[in-house]
């Protein structure tokens, strides 16, 4: 079964054709990161306008790269939630019109479910149940993946997502946007023990996380040094920040797996590309005899292949939509 997938939830416009939820025939992405870097973050209106400009051409390229015609697909899938509402509306509107014109089923896909499904592309042998850590710019979740379309949130951030904290700390350190890869590279040159940063704990919700205080602590350190005319050791502050993020995520991830008796952990989302997080998880998983699944960096960020992968399983469960499908800015993965 071949599915055309459209992704436009934030600042990447993407189109892909995926076969049977595991095999990628094409995967085309247009990133707006350089454009939004001028503003230190994503500007929703600019993102929406850029999606409109390039979504049709990207879809044509997806068909060309796959070597198939439009009528060769069996369904059209689209990210409809969660994300920037204007950006989502572009993708949903385009997908609905294409599905209607081709007389093909329309499959709505939850963006975070798509991130989890990136692992099915990278690891054809992976099947539920397993635990998944989802760490991206807008989400930090510990999800029990019971089946391909059945999920339970075991823990989540109470405020900022880890990826959001990376971006904001990168901005105060003056190293630009997006911040994840830049902080990762900078941190490799620093001393992770030089700066004392907070680790939040939420009473009564041991698997939940908080990154707002950590972000604020980094900002305050940088501002205080600036006011006193002192020089910040940026590599060491970046390393200390990465260590604090790992301390917040890794123990909870392992505890969640143990709590639900899972012997497999998958990682998803842009923050999954962080080398410090990967190293810590690999170490802890090995000592706990848990099998760990890391998708390649190319599948960690937003892309349409992951949407096409999840769409296959949604379609098998008859989770399709009509022309009344609307975008939603917020929606839990376990709806």
What is this entry, summarized?
With 335 residues, the protein is α/β, with parallel strands linked by helices. It contains ten helices and ten strands. α9 links the parallel β9 and β10.
Structure description:
The chain is of the alpha/beta class. It has ten helices and ten strands. Helix 5 packs parallel to helix 7, helix 6 packs across helix 8 and helix 8 packs parallel to helix 9. The longest helix is centred in the C-terminal third of the chain and has 26 residues. The mean pLDDT is 95.
Which key terms come to mind for this protein?
335 residues, alpha/beta, five-stranded mixed β-sheet, 10 strands, 43% helix, globular
User: Averaging pLDDT over every residue, what do you get?
Assistant: 95
Span from first to last CA? Answer: 26 Å
Strand order of the largest sheet: 3-2-1-4-5
The helix-and-strand class reads: alpha/beta
Secondary-structure topology with pairs:
Layout: E1 2-7, E2 12-19, E3 23-31, H1 33-37, H2 44-66, E4 75-81, H3 85-102, E5 106-110, H4 111-122, E6 130-135, E7 140-147, E8 150-156, H5 162-172, H6 180-187, H7 212-228, H8 234-259, E9 264-268, H9 275-287, E10 291-293, H10 305-316
Parallel strand pairs: 1-4, 4-5, 6-9, 9-10
Antiparallel strand pairs: 1-2, 2-3, 6-7, 7-8
């Amino acid at each position: 079964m071949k599915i055309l997938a459209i992704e436009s939830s934030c600042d990447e416009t993407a189109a892909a054709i995926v076969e049977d939820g595991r095999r990628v025939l094409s995967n085309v992405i247009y990133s707006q990161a350089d454009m939004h870097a001028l503003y230190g973050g994503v500007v929703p209106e600019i993102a929406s306008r850029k999606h409109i400009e390039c979504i049709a051409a990207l879809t044509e390229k997806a068909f060309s790269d796959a070597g198939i015609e439009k009528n060769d697909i069996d369904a059209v899938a689209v990210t409809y939630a969660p994300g920037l509402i204007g950006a989502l509306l572009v993708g949903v509107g385009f997908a609905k019109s294409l599905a209607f014109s081709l007389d093909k089923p329309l499959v709505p896909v939850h963006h975070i479910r798509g991130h989890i499904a990136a692992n099915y592309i990278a690891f054809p042998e992976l099947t539920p149940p397993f635990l998944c850590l989802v760490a991206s710019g807008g989400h930090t979740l510990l999800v029990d993946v019971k089946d391909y379309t059945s999920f339970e949130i075991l823990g989540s951030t109470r405020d900022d997502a880890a990826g959001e904290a990376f971006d904001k700390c990168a901005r105060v350190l003056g190293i630009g946007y997006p911040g994840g890869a830049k902080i990762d590279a900078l941190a490799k040159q620093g001393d992770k023990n030089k700066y004392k940063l907070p680790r939040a704990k939420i009473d009564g919700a041991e698997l939940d996380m908080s990154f707002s205080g950590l972000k604020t602590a980094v900002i305050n350190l940088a501002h205080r040094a600036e006011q006193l005319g002192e020089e910040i050791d940026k590599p060491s502050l970046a390393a200390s920040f990465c260590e604090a993020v790992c301390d917040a995520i890794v123990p909870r991830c392992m505890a969640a797996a143990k709590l639900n008796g899972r012997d497999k952990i998958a990682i998803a989302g842009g923050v999954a590309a962080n080398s410090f997080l990967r190293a810590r998880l690999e170490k802890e998983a090995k000592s706990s005899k848990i099998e760990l699944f890391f998708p390649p960096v190319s599948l960690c960020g937003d892309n349409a292949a992951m949407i096409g992968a999840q769409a296959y399983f949604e379609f098998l469960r008859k989770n399709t939509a009509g022309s009344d499908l609307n975008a939603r800015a917020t929606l839990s993965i376990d709806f």
